[in-house]
Write a structure and sequence with these properties.
By secondary structure, the protein is mainly α. Helix content is 72%, strand content 5%.
Length: 414
C-alpha cells in the first residue's frame, strides 16, 4: 500500500508531521480530519519509493472532493477554527484560505472561500470580501473580523469567534436534544388519537347501526366527530396548511414578527424562558465582542442587528442611545426594565473594575445553565402530564365505545 507523507496542524496550531499508508490522498485527508487535524500537505512517495522530505511546500493540492452542497453551522465553525489555527501558526491569510478550500466538505463553501481569495487578491480586505457573502457570514462575523484586522489580532479574534460558535453550537444541540423526546411523544399521542378516531370508532359505529338502540351522548359525540374528520379530512388539512402559511407570512413581516415575539415573551409559564433565551444570546455576543476589543457602542450596534429578536433589538437601540450620551451601561440596562437586577449589578461591577467582558461571560454561563435546568424540568414534567392526558382521552373514547355494548348486553339478558 502506498505511503503518504503529511504535514498538518492541530487545534493549538502546532505542526504535526508523519507518514500514513493508504489507497489515496482522499483517504489520508479523511483519516487526518477525523483526528481533528488540519491538513496542510499530503505528498506520496517519490519515484524510488521514499517519502518526500518534511520540507515539502505547505499547500495541500489533492483531489479531496466535497460531499454535499449546503453550508451547515458546523462547516462555518470548522472554517473559523481552521483559519484561526493557520493564522496563529504564521501562515498568510491567502495561503490559509487556499489550504482550507481544498478540504472543506461543502461545495458551496468551497466556492465562497475561492471567491474570498479572488477578492482579496484584487485588493479588498478580508472583512470587505466577506461582506459580499452576507447571506453566509453574519454582521457579527464581519464586524468582528474588521476589528481583528484593524487591531492586527485577526488570529486571536477568529479564535474567540470560533470558541463562541462552538459554545453556541453545543448549547443549541442541548436544547434540540432536550426537545426531541417531548416532540416524539406528542406526535405519537396525536397519531394514536387520530387512528382511534378514524379507524376504531367507525368500526364500532357500524356494529351499533345493526341494533335498534339509542346511543349514549358520549358515543354520539365520538361517532359524529369521526364522521366529520373522515368526511372533511381534505378540507381540514387544506385549512391547516393555509392557516399555517398565512401565520408564517404575517410573522415574516416586521410588525407580525414583533407581535409574535412579544407574545412569546409574555406567554404564561414560558415567557421567562424565551426572555432568558434572547438575553443569553445578547450576553454571549457582547462577551465575544468586548473581549475582542470592539468599543462598547460599536458592540451594542452589532448586537442590535445580530441578536435576531426585534423586541430586544429595539431595547438595545435605546441602551445604545443612553450610552452614547454618557450614561453607564449598567444604568441603561436597568432603565430598559428587560434585564433582571442580578445582570444589572454584575454589569455595573464589571464597568467599575474594568472586567466587562468577564462579567458578560459569567452572565452567559449562568443563563445557559438556567435554560438547561428549565428544559430538564419541563421535559420531566411533560412526560407524565402527556401520558396522563393521552391515557384519559383514550380511556374516554374506550368508555364511549363500550357503553352501547353494555346496554345491548342488558337488553339481551332480559
Amino acid at each position: 500500500m502506498p505511503k503518504y507523507f503529511y504535514v498538518a496542524r492541530n487545534k493549538a496550531g502546532t505542526k504535526v508531521n508523519g507518514v500514513e499508508e493508504g489507497v489515496s490522498q482522499d483517504e489520508i485527508v479523511s483519516r487526518l480530519q477525523s483526528k481533528d487535524l488540519l491538513v496542510v500537505s499530503v505528498t506520496g512517495e517519490d519515484s524510488k519509493g521514499a517519502a518526500v522530505s518534511p520540507n515539502a511546500p505547505e499547500v495541500f493540492k489533492g483531489k479531496f472532493k466535497p460531499r454535499y452542497n449546503r453550508i451547515t453551522s458546523q462547516d462555518l465553525t470548522l472554517f473559523c477554527r481552521q483559519l484561526a489555527t493557520l493564522l496563529g501558526a504564521g501562515v498568510t491569510i491567502l495561503r490559509s484560505l487556499d489550504i482550507i478550500s481544498n478540504q472543506v466538505s461543502s461545495r458551496r463553501l468551497q466556492g465562497v472561500i475561492k471567491d474570498l481569495e479572488k477578492n482579496m487578491e484584487a485588493g479588498l480586505s478580508f472583512h470587505d470580501a466577506m461582506s459580499k457573502h452576507s447571506n453566509i457570514f453574519s454582521e457579527f462575523w464581519i464586524h468582528l473580523v474588521e476589528s481583528g484586522e484593524a487591531s492586527g489580532n485577526l488570529a486571536v479574534v477568529l479564535s474567540r469567534l470560533a470558541a463562541y460558535l462552538e459554545r453556541y453550537g453545543a448549547f443549541k444541540k442541548k436544547i434540540i436534544s432536550a426537545l426531541i423526546y417531548p416532540a416524539i411523544l406528542l406526535i405519537a399521542g396525536i397519531s394514536a388519537l387520530l387512528f382511534m378516531t378514524v379507524k376504531i370508532v367507525p368500526t364500532f359505529a357500524n356494529i351499533f347501526s345493526g341494533f335498534n338502540i339509542k346511543l349514549p351522548l358520549l358515543t354520539v359525540i365520538l361517532v359524529e366527530t369521526s364522521k366529520f374528520i373522515r368526511g372533511y379530512s381534505l378540507i381540514i388539512i387544506a385549512a391547516l396548511v393555509i392557516g399555517f402559511w398565512l401565520i408564517r407570512r404575517y410573522i415574516s413581516t416586521r410588525e407580525g414578527r414583533k407581535r409574535f415575539e412579544g407574545f412569546l415573551l409574555k406567554m404564561p409559564g414560558f415567557g421567562e424562558f424565551f426572555r432568558t433565551l434572547v438575553i443569553e444570546r445578547f450576553t454571549s455576543e457582547m462577551s465575544t465582542l468586548v473581549e475582542s476589543g470592539v468599543p462598547i457602542l460599536y458592540s451594542l450596534e452589532i448586537s442590535e442587528r445580530s441578536v435576531d429578536n426585534l423586541v430586544l433589538g429595539d431595547i438595545i437601540r435605546n441602551i445604545k442611545d443612553d450610552v452614547r450620551v454618557g450614561k453607564p451601561l449598567g444604568q441603561a440596562l436597568e432603565k430598559s426594565n428587560f434585564f433582571d437586577p442580578m445582570a444589572v449589578q454584575m454589569i455595573n461591577i464589571g464597568e467599575e473594575i474594568g472586567e466587562l467582558s468577564s462579567m458578560f461571560k459569567r452572565l452567559d454561563t449562568f443563563y445557559q445553565e438556567y435554560l438547561e435546568t428549565f428544559l430538564t424540568r419541563i421535559v420531566s414534567m411533560f412526560e407524565p402530564i402527556m401520558l396522563v392526558f393521552i391515557g384519559a382521552v383514550i380511556g374516554i373514547m374506550v368508555i364511549g365505545m363500550f357503553l352501547p355494548i353494555f346496554e345491548i348486553s342488558q337488553i339481551g339478558g332480559r
